[in-house]
């Protein structure tokens, strides 16, 4: 077992906060990866980890990913994440989340939380009773609500950027797209694809979700394992991670992979290269799905859905920048994306700390005579 400091040093983490509150049953870890660009924003995952080591590994990995996602999306945010160790189906209580909220408040804005796997908007509303540093609150309470329409739209424009690069086309009309997973994000992606005249094939493991999309958009449903073998132009993973691997990549007939699922490459370095070698253009997942983060980030300034959609439209140019760099350096696109994100973090770290007078400085002096 490596020490916490060794694990933090391995990926340049700034801070890890271990939250322990036996009275409420809270056992959580907050990881702040990098705050060069801004406060560390990232969701709070609730998961029954087999060990504390597993929880630490996960929170360090996820928080670092958030730094890259925020940097590539041109947001003024850093990367953070939290994990609550426990069974999301059995162990959720108001006091557990309020206790977590107090720990978040104690960080005084260095970390901003949100919902993630195993947590919901309701849980975040409990967190909000204790801290202002929480996003992903319901629209009714002035929050950004369900991020998936913005994520789905961002994935759509990301996919179009890949089509532009690979095929030189502005329109996707008539192209064949295979969408894996038609849950929250997949639904919205299929909607945009269908509206623009693509022929869409879908798969899911939940019949109800398939029926909804077939009825609304007339997509053609296929079995979960058949999605990789279809003769299509684009494969859009919108369900699970690690679907690009040794077994699936050799079967793909598409020339583009562009979808919203997180961590699509099973082993980043190997499978990113494998796609490149096969001439398949991979649109890096964390750029394609940045719409979700863009949406919650908007909540910090006062939520405005129009602004969130308009920022998500920028994913098109972000992807073109990544593809251009990948071409120039002759490297896989996932590497180019990391380079673009790292460059922004590095550039912003060069900004000098000019002295800024406190906003109320003059006022205070007056009041104090
Ligand atoms: P979701 O749970 O609503 O949808 C996922 C869908 O995939 C479900 O309908 C599920 O039944 C289906 N599915 C699961 N296993 C499958 C399989 N083996 N084959 C086919 N379908 C399968 O989740 P979501 O919010 O739509 O997110 C989808 C992906 O996008 C996830 O990887 C998520 O991390 C990522 N993502 C989502 C957002 C967002 O705004 N919701 C933002 C960024 C990234």
What descriptive keywords fit this protein?
alpha/beta, 6-stranded parallel β-sheet, 2 domains, binds nicotinamide-adenine-dinucleotide, Rossmann fold, single chain, 14 helices, 6-stranded mixed β-sheet, 369 residues, globular, disordered C terminus
How does this model look, in words?
By secondary structure, the protein is of the alpha/beta class. The protein has 2 domains: 4-64 and 78-134, 3-Layer(aba) Sandwich (Rossmann fold); 148-291 and 301-307 and 316-343, NAD(P)-binding Rossmann-like Domain (Rossmann fold), CATH 3.40.50. It is 44% helix and 14% strand. It is built from 14 helices and 12 strands. It has helices at residues 4-10, 52-72, 94-106, 121-128, 148-167, 184-195, 207-217, 268-277, 285-288, 291-300, 305-313, 315-329, 333-349, 361-367, and strands spanning 15-21, 26-34, 40-41, 44-47, 78-85, 111-112, 176-180, 199-203, 220-221, 234-237, 256-257, 281-282. Helix 6 links the parallel strand 7 and strand 8 (199-203). The longest helix has 21 residues, at 52-72. It starts with a helix and ends with a helix. The model is unreliable at 365-369 (pLDDT under 50). Nicotinamide-adenine-dinucleotide binds next to helix 5 and helix 6.
Quick structural overview:
With 369 residues, the chain is α/β, with parallel strands linked by helices. It is 44% helix and 14% strand.
CATH architecture annotation of the largest domain: 3-Layer(aba) Sandwich
> Based on CA inertia axes, which overall geometry fits?
globular
- CA radius of gyration: 21 Å
Low-confidence stretches at least 5 residues in length (pLDDT < 50)?
A: 365-369
Q: In percent, how helical is the residue content? A: 40-55%
Q: Order of helices and strands, N to C?
A: HEEEEHEHEHHEHEHEEEHEHHHHHH
How far apart the termini lie comes to 59 Å
CATH fold topology of the largest domain: Rossmann fold
How many structural domains can be distinguished in the coordinates?
A: 2
Reading off the top of the CATH hierarchy, the class of the largest domain is best stated as: Alpha Beta
Total DSSP E strands: 12
Largest sheet: 6 strands, mixed
Strand content: 5-15%
The average pLDDT score comes to 94
Bound molecules: nicotinamide-adenine-dinucleotide
